[in-house]
Amino acid sequence: MNTNPTARKNDLVVQETSDEVLVYDLKTSKAHCLNSSAAMIWRSCNGSNTVSDIVREFEKNGIGSVSEDFVWLAIDQLNENDLLENKNASRYNGHSRRHALKTIGLATAVALPVIASLMAPQQALGAISCACQADINCMGLTGCPSQMVCNVNFVCAPQPMPPIS
Amino acid sequence: MMRDTQRWNLLQRKAQQAKSVRAVEVLRSAGIEPILIKGVAAAQFYPTDKYRFSIDTDLAVSDADFDKANSLCRSPAAAGMAIDLHRALRHLDTVEWQNLFKNSRLLDFEEGNIRVLRPEDNLRVLCVHWLTDGGVYKERLWDVYYSIANRPADFDWDRFLGVVSDRRRRWLICTLGLATRYLGLDLSDTPIKDEASELPKWLTDAVDTEWADDVKPRPLEASLNDSKVLIEQVKRRFSPNPIRATIEMEGSFDARTRFFYRLGNFFMRIPSSYRRVSGTLRAR
């Protein structure tokens, strides 16, 4: 049985951005944001790479030198968020995750792998309607017709046409 | 660095595309080619950082394919896909299905492609759908806004307005006029800029009233468990939404009164409401 970590592919929607990878799980409707380190490790989990291989990939790509604990930290989070095909029990050289986290943090200049959950922001829904009470509510609503004017209909948009029949 | 809202919108938009492709594939597996309406068909004109929320996937199929498609949508293959199946476009458009299909096009996504109406037909459907909802959903007026604001350079106004009756033409122009009035849609470079500014007062009054009302319409059969909600919904039925009534009675926006449309609509809806409520009660 293959014990090397394998990235899950099914039922996932993946959106790459310049510095992170966004993942939406169609089965659980959960959304995750992987920073560049976590994303790099996730991509390297092809089922044939061992943890040592992934460490070497980091160096090969010129990202920096990392330890196996560093990779395990990412694998742990990938496991927790159901982003791997196979569950891999973490192995921090006999230490706890907390202890490993401290030593990794001190020993590497590379950003620690982080997988954050994405929640539906209130603003995402608010921006759709562009509803407002005052001009100040329109500031920052980049998708609305106006970011300065809360018009007579309480919409962040220019004032409407005056006459109606 | 992206903001959470941008991340969320970007991802949800892509997830919605993936879900829609999957829903379409269910019907394609049986040789049925559906046309997707609303959903990603409307979202295609939204800016990339804006997410158009929707809870289901609206697929229209020809009259001949409907029964087969309906069975598929109720099969385990479609479990959890929330497909809302339409028998052609019925009241949403009067252009023949064959004509709409012949003019339709494929939208390409990473996960596959989806057939949608051509932009002019798509916009007609979005307008009439918004009106059929009684103009209740302010946020859905953005569908109309972006369909015009981000329309293709070869948008054919004659295809949009010239293939339906004069009454429907007026419905469409007024919907664009409402998007101008309430959302600031710029129609100055369009051939309908003058007509769209002539909005009947009853129409804007109806929109203002609906948007100020906290009680939104919901199916009666879904209100049976809560007497307060049920009473509110019954009250709404006794005073039919004038926009919806006009559309469902194929009425004129310029008629002198809404009274007859609303009266006719009230009686027209009784049998279907009765069927749905009694069906729900029997199933309990």
Notes on the protein architecture:
- The complex is a heterodimer of chains A (165) and B (284).
- In chain A, 31% of the residues lie in helices and 13% in strands.
- Chain A is an alpha+beta fold.
- Chain A has a four-stranded antiparallel beta sheet.
- In chain A, helix 1 crosses helix 3 and helix 2 crosses helix 3.
- Chain B has 284 residues and is mainly α.
- Chain B contains 13 helices and five strands.
- In chain B, the strands form two sheets. A three-stranded mixed beta sheet of chain B has the order 1-2-3. Chain B has a two-stranded antiparallel ribbon with strand order 4-5.
- The longest helix of chain B has 25 residues.
- The termini of chain B are far apart.
- The chains are: A alpha+beta (165), B mainly alpha (284).
- Chains A and B meet through strand 2 and helix 5 of A and helix 1 and helix 8 of B.
Mean residue pLDDT of chain A: 78
Strand order of the largest sheet of chain A: 1-2-3-4
Strand content of chain A: 5-15%
Number of strands of chain A: 4
How is the secondary structure organized here?
The complex is a heterodimer of chains A (about 160) and B (about 280).
Chain A: E1 12-16, E2 20-25, E3 30-35, H1 36-44, H2 51-60, H3 68-80, H4 97-107, E4 115-118, H5 122-129
Antiparallel strand pairs in A: 1-2, 2-3, 3-4
Helix pairs in contact in A: 1-3, 2-3
Chain B: H1 4-28, E1 35-37, H2 39-43, E2 57-61, H3 66-73, E3 83-87, H4 97-102, E4 105-109, E5 112-116, H5 119-132, H6 141-149, H7 157-161, H8 166-183, H9 193-196, H10 201-212, H11 227-238, H12 242-248, H13 259-283
Parallel strand pairs in B: 2-3
Antiparallel strand pairs in B: 1-2, 4-5
